[in-house]
Amino acid sequence: MLLFFFRQLARLPLSWLHRAGAALGWLVYWCSPSYAGRMRENLYASGVCSGEAQCEQLLRAAVAETGATSAKEMGAVMNVVRPKTQGRADGKLVSEVVKAALTPAA
Questions:
Q1: Domain for residue 27, yes or no?
Q2: Any alpha helices (H) in the chain, and if so which ranges?
Q3: Closest CA to 101 of 65, 69, 66
Q4: pLDDT per position as a tens digit, 5-44
Q5: CATH number, position 69
Q6: Domain range holding 53?
Q7: Which residues contact 102 (CB under 8 A, 6 or more apart)?
Q8: Residue 49, domain member (yes or no)
Q9: Would residue 15 count as lying in a domain?
Q10: pLDDT over 60 at 83, yes or no
């Protein structure tokens, strides 16, 4: 049964599998209340921010500089944050933290 499932998956285009993986990742992000907290802890551990205040300051400065008000403007914020975190943190992690900061709490 499992072998049949994997053979069917192998027939799909790779871009579809990437999209499915990304969708699954965001589903886990939205459904797990502790996931965002773990992402922030990883960001602190990476050395980009030594604490929550410094991380918030970095994000607020980038948001103020770009004038971003929603997650749709995340690209502009990332263009400001990316040079400051280059080589010190994983870009994907930084983008997830920026998206979480721009997404209003439900």
A1: no
A2: 2-10, 14-31, 35-45, 52-66, 74-85, 91-102
A3: 69
A4: 889 988 989 888 888 888 887 777 677 768 767 776 776 7
A5: 1.10.10.410
A6: 34-106
A7: 63, 68, 69, 70, 71, 73, 74, 77
A8: yes
A9: no
A10: yes
For all residues of the chain together, what is the average pLDDT? Answer: 77
pTM passes above 0.70 = no
Q: Which two tokens stand for residue 104?
A: 């209003």
Within a domain: residue 1? Answer: no
Number of folded domains that form the chain: 1
**Cα separations in angstroms, 34 against 29, 46, 64, 80:** 9, 19, 27, 27
The per-residue pLDDT for 11 is: 92
- State the helix-helix crossing angle for 35-45 and 14-31, rounded to 10 degrees: 100
